[in-house]
Structures are given as C-alpha cells and as structure tokens.
Amino acid sequence: MMRACRPFFDRLKEIMTSGLVVQVLCFARLVRRHRELIGSTRPCYADACSIRRRFGTSAEANAIHSSDSTAAAYRSLSVVLALR
Question: Ranges for the Nucleoside diphosphate kinase-like domain (predicted)?
Fold first, then answer.
C-alpha cells in the first residue's frame, strides 16, 4: 500500500497529477499482457517497444501507472482521486 510517509511520495504525487490521467480497465487474464506492453518500472530496463521505454524518463516519471491486481488498483485510485 502506498503511504505518504515514504520518501518518494511527494514527488510521485506531483508526477501523477501533472497531466492527463487515463484509466484503462482490463480483465484479469489481460493483466499480464498489459504489463508486458507498458514495460519495466525503470524505462532503461524496459523492452524497446514498451510504453515506458518510449515515453518514460525515470523510474518515478515512467509515463504510465499500472496495478497488478484489482485491490492494488482500488488503492491507487483512492490515492489519486483524493489528490484532486
């Protein structure tokens, strides 16, 4: 769970609310493929054609946020929506 006391939280909050937010909903069986498309959290390690390699600039500003489960998605959305 994301906690405001973590050292990266303020910077992450700033990045996540700095631009357009797009919600992508997928079925559970598509999560693995979706995560392949977005790539590694660190753009420098992501596959060449992944979203993060193409558009990310750092591990923090990696162009896209994706949750690995429904529960994690609800937690992330509650944080982002609370910031608006």
Answer: 1-82
Number of structural domains (the chain) is 1
Please indicate, yes or no, if residue 76 is contained in any of the structural domains.
yes
For residues 67 and 2, the model is more confident at: 67
Q: Domain of 27? A: 9-83
- State the pTM of this model: 0.59
Evaluate whether residue 19 is within a structural domain. Answer: yes
1 inside domain: no
CB 61 within 8 A of CB 48: no
- Known catalytic residues? 65
pLDDT digits (tens, 9 = 90+) for 37-76: 899 989 999 999 999 999 999 988 888 878 777 788 788 7
Give the contacts of 52 (CB within 8 A, at least 6 positions apart). 38, 39, 40, 41, 42, 43, 46, 62, 63, 64
Q: Does some domain include residue 61? A: yes
